[in-house]
Amino acid sequence: MLFIKLSFIKSSLLIFASLFIFGCSTQFRSNIEHNVHLLEKVPLVQQGLTFITPTTITGMEQDKQYLALTFSHALKKARPELRISDLSKTLGMINQADLEGEYQTMYEDYNETGIFNKSTLKKIGSLTNSRYICQLKLSYFKSKAQGRWSILGLTVYDTESANLRLFVQIWDATTGIIVWEAAQELTYAYDTTSEDPVTFSNMIHLAAKDIAKALP
Question: Which domains are delineated in the chain?
Answer without folding.
Answer: 27-214 (3.40.50)
